[in-house]
UniProtKB/TrEMBL annotation:
InterPro entries: Topless_fam, WD40_repeat_dom_sf. It comes from the Eukaryota. This is CTLH LisH motif, WD40/YVTN repeat-like-containing domain, Topless family. Residues 111-124 have a biased composition (Low complexity). Residues 97-130 are annotated as: Disordered. One of its GO terms (biological process) is regulation of DNA-templated transcription.
Amino acid sequence: MSSIFFEQWFPPETSRITDATYSCNSQSIFVGFDDGSVAILASSTLTLRCRISSTAYLPNNPNARVHPLVIAAHPHEADQFALGLSDGGVCVLEPLESEGKWGTSPPLENGAGPSGTAPGAASTDDQAQR
């Protein structure tokens, strides 16, 4: 049996991949790293759509080294996925409603430019309970 090589992608040298999975529509690949960040790649070209810092979904605790161990794609929502974290927590991520999907800019309203807020993820996980 032979395999066919399609595309190749290398993570940043400072972090290692802990897990990765395809979205339910196979258009994206969600990749978790040991530094806590998550990358969303276009599956057809392996180009980076966006990278989510751990500070977007975890409370700021410099002493904790929490990172995704497992990534699970939602079975029906292509841009939603869950992270199983090294501290036992679970965090569900999806793009901000104004963005619509990963790696797109929010639409301009009344000719105004982007707001001063940094792009990030809306988390359905209640971090205060952790």
